Amino acid sequence: MNYETPLYRPPSEAQSLILQVTIGCSHNSCTFCSMYGKKQFRVRSLEEVCEDICSARVKYGRVQRIFLADGDALAMETDALLAILKQLTASFPEAERISVYAGPKNILAKTERELAAIRQAGVKLAYFGLESGDAEVLQAVKKGVNPQEMVEAASRVRAAGIDLSLTVILGLGGKERSRLHALHTADVVSRINPEYLAALTLMVEKSTPLAAKIVGGEFLLLSPHEVLLELKMILANLDVKHCLFRSNHASNYFAIGGLLPQDKGRLLAETERALGHTELLKNEYLRGL
């Protein structure tokens, strides 16, 4: 396998075969993200990728799950992606799931027929970085789309039959937009109604534009207590059906999880308890990306 590092994948793909089909991120403009800052985006050639697939089959044998990296496999031309998926499913017929990161702009660039073909070819799960449902926050962090476009992109993925794992970032609105960030995020998530929802907590890398805003006093970070208040507000205002919720990422001060809406009462109670017991919160030095 040939990897161009750094290499990232969702926490739930820890045991998956990671196959790089693109290098970097086609958007690569979010002010809070440094993941692909040093990579020039490109699509790997079909020959390169197929060599890696053959190599992986020899090295690993049977594979249950496959994740297509880097930042957004859907940035590829659909025919090229379908060719890779055909090779993957032929080489690993036992694989239960193929998953991808899916950016909203690249989803919106695909037709419904293209997304349906991608699902038919084997992609079952898309990780979608909503980050916020607040228009001003999305604009400030240069996400490149507005809340309605987020809803449209996510809806297209679900309509194609691809399960959706949505990510939001606690604290992304700073102190100034915290309440609106929470309320609008809960509203957009509810409109999307994803199968999976993960809440991370903002961590700022020194090399990002957001870090410069913090140094300049233009952006005020939330305290751990304020982060939990934001989490509580999002949970209280969510209206989703059969959604597996997790807030147990390394970046979080406090880990909770459950099935919504069934476990909403318990999740709110646990968050309320943590608000009154600071000893339950993770120390800052233990947080990570």
What oligomeric state best describes the polypeptide chains here? single chain
Number of domains: 1
Strand numbers in spatial order across the main sheet: 1-4-5-6-7-8-9-10
Quote the distance from N terminus to C terminus. Answer: 24 Å
Q: Which fold name corresponds to the CATH topology?
A: TIM Barrel
Shape: globular
Question: pLDDT below 50 for ≥5 consecutive residues: which ranges?
Answer: none
Give the strand tally: 10
* CATH first level: Alpha Beta
Output the structural class: alpha/beta
Quick structural overview:
The chain is of the alpha/beta class. It has 10 helices and 10 strands. The protein has a single domain (11-277), classed as Aldolase class I (TIM Barrel, Alpha-Beta Barrel).
Could you characterize what this model shows?
The chain is α/β, with parallel strands linked by helices and 289 residues long. It has a single domain, classed as TIM Barrel (Alpha-Beta Barrel), CATH 3.20.20.70. 40% of the residues lie in helices and 18% in strands. It has helices at 46-60, 78-91, 104-108, 112-120, 135-140, 147-159, 174-192, 209-215, 224-237, 264-276; strands spanning 17-20, 22-23, 42-43, 65-69, 97-101, 123-131, 163-170, 196-201, 243-247, 256-260. The chain has an eight-stranded mixed sheet with strand order 1-4-5-6-7-8-9-10. It has a two-stranded antiparallel ribbon with strand order 2-3. Strand 9 and strand 10 (256-260) form a beta hairpin. It is globular.
Walk me through the topology:
Elements lengths: L16 E4 L1 E2 L18 E2 L2 H15 L4 E5 L8 H14 L5 E5 L2 H5 L3 H9 L2 E9 L3 H6 L6 H13 L3 E8 L3 H19 L3 E6 L7 H7 L8 H14 L5 E5 L8 E5 L3 H13 L13
Parallel strand pairs: 1-4, 4-5, 5-6, 6-7, 7-8, 8-9
Antiparallel strand pairs: 2-3, 9-10
Helix pairs in contact: 1-2, 6-7, 7-9, 9-10
